Amino acid sequence: MAAHTGRTGEPDVLDRPIDWERAERSPEFQELVTAKRRFVIPATVFFLAWYLGFILLAGYASDFMGESVYEGLTVGYCLALTQFVMVLVLGLWYMRKADNEFDPLAERAAARALETAEEAERGPARFSTTGETQTGRDVTATTPEDRS
Amino acid sequence: MTILAEINVEAVVIFAIVVSITLGITYWASKRMTGAETFWAAGRSITGAQNGLAISGDYLSAASFLGIAGLIFLYGFDGFLYSVGFLVAFLTVMFLLAERMRNAGKYTIADVLSFRLRERPARTAAAIGTLAVVAFYLIAQMVGAGVLIQALVGIDFSVSVLLTGAFMLCYVIFGGMLATTWVQIVKAVLLMTGIAVMSVFVLERVGFNPIELFNRAEEQKGDGDFTLAPGGLYSNPIDTLSLGLALVLGTAGLPHILMRFFTVPDAKAARKSVVWAMFLIGFFYLLTTFIGFGARAILGPGGVEAAGKGGNLAAPTLAAELGGGEGTFGGDLFLALIAGIAFATILAVVAGLVLSASGAVAHDVWSNVIRKGRDSEHEEVYVARIAAASIGGIAILIAIIGGEGLNVSFMVGLAFAVAASANFPALVMAFFWPRFNTAGAVTGVLFGVISAIFLVVMSPGVWPGPDSEGSPIGWELANPGIVSIPLGFIGCWLGTVLSSERGAERTYHELYVRSETGLGAEKAHAIH
Fold it and tell me: What's the complex ipTM?
């Protein structure tokens, strides 16, 4: 698996057998991708619509775009400026959301995925003597995908 | 030759300063070269802010600086459409690819594809896409460099191309990504400063009232195509849409831009670098207003001849005028400064291009397809240097043979069209479509590359002249994107559903989790 990580001679941090499908189904991962989708899909639809709308107006409504707002300042140039504003606002907004919201969720999802590897290594029937891993198993045992 | 007939001493001095700084950087970087990860990814040690500057330096080519200024000067509003499209494109990069590339990739686009797909065909397909984009982009920049240096410094075209190529190869071969990054950072600072100073000079002429600039530009429109309304350059609305699509999606398929995301420590830094790049690139493209419309307002219709073919020399001509006029000390000095900045601009872009092409040849084709991963890292870097020298050599040769006859903006448009039609669909499908498989990737890339090139070759601009009957197949669009981008996606889909290969679905889950969480992403290494 992951042929491209193997050949530099550096140890792959994922030598442990992570169960990717289970990691994907985990509530932590689902929470991450749902949160991201809730922002990224509307934002992408909005910017593509606003941009392509601008391009279509430039193509089909050149008289309107050439109308003067004030002396030599045209409607077209003002709309072009809104594109600059859009890029900066969406860029900063996404960065804030990602730093404050998506990154912590991603960390939790990653930690959860690593747990699937530890469980696979230990095997289902083996007892752990350390309380720490015991707790970890108890937590994971209550997650829905273990029951599925 | 429209501006100067003999060697321009000021320009030579400034070119020499640019070259010494960049060669100094290369020497410094070469001392820190340790292996493949330093060569292609600068040890993943570049910070978000540095990478944002480097992305601007990698992205803002001579086509942006001289080309857009020239297009606005000649056609008005339609030229500014390029500025808008080139900037909005970074939203596509940020939302779809930047962080995912960093999390899942190593050095090249192919790393992401081969993650899910059968390695050899997937890497070969990705290498074809990368090399096609780089070939057109690189030759365009080399021809641009030759034309520019010949006109501004007075050195012969072939010698200019040869010199540019030699410096470019020096940075890449000896300094790898670390040298290339810092050359791009220096260039970005020079370019931003240059365009800001020029804008202030232009604004000073109109009493710092931008609207007065548009008024004066309108007064100076003359008999040409210049207009403050759309339609100066593209009379067919579908052509405008096609261009807009290629610009906004093509950037997300440019190998030398995507490669920059491998140079930062993690996805957070990748994200930060896109936002930095948005601000810097947005600032730059906003100021193309003052250079382009300023050139029209100040030079007027009388400047069209001096601006040369495609208006590429409009910005330097404007600089000479702002400095006090051609032949005065101030005019010559300002012209030389702008020429030096344009030269640095080209050097930084071509170095990034050659580096990404060397990755496709050495890392993808040589190491993983031919040697099947049995070669040493030392061998990989060695092959990368040979590859860089060969690719650079071929580009220099084509640029010299094709000469000034090659149309620079045509070649850059082709590069964006191929990137949007081949690389972009394959990457998007690999990240987002569970069913996507190897046959789909190969078909998609081939559909995209072939249709984009075919439609550009058939476009009316390639068959000009009074005796020509235009395109042999009656094709009317200058920009192929509106047809070739959907064809790239259709190719990905068709190849996938027609083949029986199903194994790639399992790896989808791994790529999905890794690209979203950063698990197992390549680690950063400090460079000492």
Answer: 0.91
